[in-house]
Design brief:
Number of strands: 4
Helix content: 40-55%
Largest sheet: 2 strands, antiparallel
Strand order of the largest sheet: 1-2
Number of helices: 3
Order of helices and strands: HHEEHEE
Amino acid sequence: MRRMTDAIGLVAVLAATAGLFAQSTASTGYLTPPKAIVDILDAEPLPMVSIGPARETIALLSRRSMPSIDELAQPMLRIAGLRINPANNG
C-alpha cells in the first residue's frame, strides 16, 4: 500500500513540473531552428530512376520537395493518402 501512494505522489509531482516547463517554453515565443536543419528540410529531393519492363529504357524522374501555396489552395480529392487535383488529373 505504501508503494502505491508513493507512486501516485511521484506521478502528481511529475505532472505538476511538466506543466511548469510547458508554460515556460510557451512564454519564450517562436523559436527558429538552426540553419543546418533548415537547409536539410529545404533541399531538393534526389531524382528517382524507373527502368522499363524490357530493361531497354530508363526514366529519370524529378519532383518538387514541397508544393507551392497556390497549389495547396486549389480544391483537391483525397484518395488513398494522395492529393489529386481534379483540374489536371482528368
